[in-house]
Design goal:
The chain is of the alpha+beta class. The chain has a single domain (4-342), classed as Aminoglycoside 3'-phosphotransferase, Chain: A, domain 2, CATH 3.90.1200.10. It has a five-stranded antiparallel beta sheet with strand order 1-2-3-5-4, with helices on both faces. The chain has helices at residues 4-19, 85-97, 130-135, 140-159, 173-187, 192-203, 245-251, 270-281, 287-309, 321-327, 331-342, and strands at 24-30, 38-46, 49-57, 105-108, 118-122, 212-214, 223-226, 229-233, 240-242. It is 42% helix and 14% strand. The longest helix is centred in the last third of the chain and has 23 residues, at 287-309. It contains eleven helices and nine strands. It is globular and about 60 Å long.
Length: 343
Amino acid sequence: MSEPHDTAARLAAALRRHAGLHGHVDGLRRLTGGATKTTWSFDLVAPEGRHALILQQAPALPALPASPDPVQSGPRRLATPRLAAADDARLMTVARAHGVPAPRVLAMLDVQDGLASGYITERVEGETLGRKLVNDPALAAARGAMAAQAGTILAAIHATPTQALPFLQRLSPAQELAVYGDLLERTGFRHAALAFALQWTRQHLPTGGRQTLVHSDFRTGNLIVGPEGIRCVLDWEIARIGDPMQDLGVLCMRTWRFGGTPEVGGFGARADLYAAYERASGMPVDAARVRFWEAFSNLKWAIGCVRRGLSVRADGSAASLELCAVGRRMEEPLWDFFQLIEG
């Protein structure tokens, strides 16, 4: 970002150019949170009133050991790229048009805007912090509704047509396992439990089934919640075409319950999630596939912890203390993985 005054002026110009909105920018501030994006909140003060808005930009990720960033492609090195900002915005626009509560995109930025890669959306008020969502007494009524709401929203995501989204990657479970196995191999890190988990997953890969739009990161922490429940679904940058049961499995991971007891996101019951999904989609939930994806997602997060813990700067030093701390938590999703496959 440039100096705040210059940035504000460029934002106002971009909104005039792309959205036909005239006014000046007020209250520009960077928000906390967001592992892969830089997020700014601001208001556009226009003659007709204030517009509450968000600017999102995609920063470069830290370098990882023995692995140039981007991931190499080829028969052995399959890529799992995050969506480019323009594709991310295009996906949210299509999903929203088909009933998904995705952010409303007002402007996709280009080089002429002088603001780097990104987009501007309407700002949705509400809570996103996982521990607050699962514990705050003020959100008790929301928690009572959210599992069923999540099922309905996931049904809408999985029914979203993808013909206008040719940039979406299509990954089979076997391809996704190959990606994560390769990512772990490239770190040089060796761990017997990880090796066993990879082998178990390889032996239990599901076959067949539907292929739909999959959010891939639908979980507590990526939802904006108000007193009435889920208002908006965030963080679409790793969406792809795949097994819709993956989204249900991710939502049930213990890691993303943030200390809450209920199995769905720390806020609700599987029975409510499954019933609402089946009611809205007209398709049965395959509980065994959901359990596979929950286990596999724990393995992926364990590998993600390893990679974050070993992340380095260009000079070879640790990328950050925070990432080192994440690396030390790899045993938690591994424990959850083994609990799931034994159950």
